[in-house]
Hints:
mainly alpha
Amino acid sequence: MTNALAEVGRILSGMTRAEKAQLLQWIVRDLGDAFPGIESVPGVSGGEPCVVRTRIPVWALEQARRLGTSEADLLRCYPTLRADDLATAWAYVRLHGDQIDEQIRANEEA
């Protein structure tokens, strides 16, 4: 662990939950659109956000979930997916719901 991370760990241990929540908001704002575990690569799945290591678009997972597909079934259907990939995809959907809704609509019309 670097000295900076060790120092952050020391500081965090003395912070209240409210202070930690405020710090987390600052970090999220600083990271901007970065979303670990989800990537958009031009030329891969039309540049739509996909789960890293796969070509599985987040919208496809969300559409399947809306249609009643369980997480267990998704993991069986997509053997390259892990449970934490689904958790990341659902978090992405929560933050980018309008974008995902539009991608679902566009793919239904295609």
